[in-house]
Amino acid sequence: MYATHAPHGRKNLLESVANAREGSNIRQETRETRPFLQLALLSAGHFFNDVHSAFLPTLLPEIIRKLSLSMAQAGFLNSATGLVQMLTIPFMGVLADRTNRPVFVIAGPILSSLGIALMPFAPGYASLLLCLGIFSFGSSTFHPQGQASSGAVAGETRHSLFVSLFSGAGMLGAAFSPLYAVFLVKTLGYRGLPVVLVPTLALAFVVYRIMPRIDFTPSRQAKAGFLSSIWQVGKVIWPVWAISLARDATFQGVRFFLPLFLTLRGGTLAQGGFSIFAITILAVAASLVGGWSADRWGTRNVIAVTLSVSPLAILAATFAEGRLSLALFIAGTALLDASSPMTLAMGQKLTPHARGVASSILMGFSWGPAGMATYPAGMIADSLGLTATLRVFALLPLASLPILFRRF
């Protein structure tokens, strides 16, 4: 009897071992592929959040015409979005470090698209500011958790790659934003903008079903107070913040006023939208090349090149005419923004225990005040003209070079 059943028993044992190995392989494959799935969902959220980012500068000539705005009033529209981001994004970063549920990744794109969807129905300047406030708060809600999670799910070996891919998705969304805005207005009319809610609501459903939690452990240090958390991280990363502020002020200033600059020279709304598209799509390519270059020649050296060459190209663009001027504006501004993923990665590596707070400071306290600079810039433009204003913006990144060389 024992001899009869022994081969059968060995067969069952071998099958059990094989099944165990197969199950182990499946779990291993799941562990290896899950970070990429989460990155894909986070990157999709970044794309659909930032695909609304250029609606305001693209449609600005039309908004100025309908509401009879001055340059200063037009500039304050962008400053208002920067103010909302500066006041809210650091606190959203603290909250993002306290949970691994994708609450903010889901809510952010919905709020951003809601603000854009309500714009056509704003009867006046104040109500338009309210719509832009909703849009800006949505962006503040998404970015800290999205940016921090992209680095957290990667692990140490793929950190720079994941952060660059996540940032690239946002840049790609921002690149298509002006084309998206022009397409919707030309196809559905200005009052057809509520259609932007459809993709963000669909994505929210997918994220909710597939990614109920993000694979990282909430930081215990995040239990400290809001201001304490921001202060402790800010003391460490302030040099990176200063570099980011100078860069973002120039990038936002040129990106905001360039479509208007072109229309004042006889260009069309579509040409202004194309200029923003070209700037952002080239910035995506430049950031990928910059990431590779940073690994090869050092992050500080690559950032130094972008901060030195870009201002010269933008400054030259203000003196040139026609296609040469546009080409220099596009190339200089795109190259400038290529360092954005590098500075975010630098900030996260300096404070690995509080990635969300670090990301929020480098975005909220950098992108926000940078956006606010367009209001005084608009006042300068009313007095001295847009050309002089753009020249001032062009020189700002050069002021951050001493900090870069002394601190890194």
Could you walk me through the main structural features you see in this protein, from its secondary elements to its overall organization?
Mean pLDDT is 83; it is low at 22-30. With 408 residues, the protein is mainly α. The chain has a single domain, classed as MFS general substrate transporter like domains (Growth Hormone, Chain: A), CATH 1.20.1250. It is globular, with a radius of gyration of 24 Å. Helix 6 crosses helix 12 (340-350). The protein has helices at 2-50, 55-67, 71-96, 103-118, 125-152, 159-188, 197-210, 226-264, 269-297, 299-319, 322-337, 340-350, 355-372, 374-384, 386-395, 401-407. Helix content is 83%, strand content 0%.
CATH fold-type name: Growth Hormone, Chain: A
* Average pLDDT, all residues: 83
CATH class: Mainly Alpha
Q: What's the CATH H-level superfamily name?
A: MFS general substrate transporter like domains
Total beta-strand segments: 0
Which architecture per CATH? Answer: Up-down Bundle
- Note the beta-strand portion: under 5%
Task: Tally the helices.
Answer: 16
Shape: globular
Radius of gyration: 24 Å
Instruction: Return the structural class.
Output: mainly alpha
> What composes the largest sheet?
none
Helical percentage: over 70%
Distance between the termini: 78 Å
Please, how many domains? 1
How do the helices and strands follow one another from N- to C-terminus? Answer: HHHHHHHHHHHHHHHH
Low-confidence stretches: 22-30
Lay out the secondary structure.
Blueprint (H helix, E strand, L loop, with lengths): L1 H49 L4 H13 L3 H26 L6 H16 L6 H28 L6 H30 L8 H14 L15 H39 L4 H29 L1 H21 L2 H16 L2 H11 L4 H18 L1 H11 L1 H10 L5 H7 L1
Helix pairs in contact: 1-4, 1-5, 1-6, 1-7, 2-6, 2-8, 2-9, 3-5, 3-8, 3-13, 3-14, 4-5, 4-7, 5-6, 5-13, 6-9, 6-12, 8-9, 8-11, 8-12, 8-13, 8-15, 8-16, 9-10, 9-11, 10-11, 10-15, 12-13, 14-15
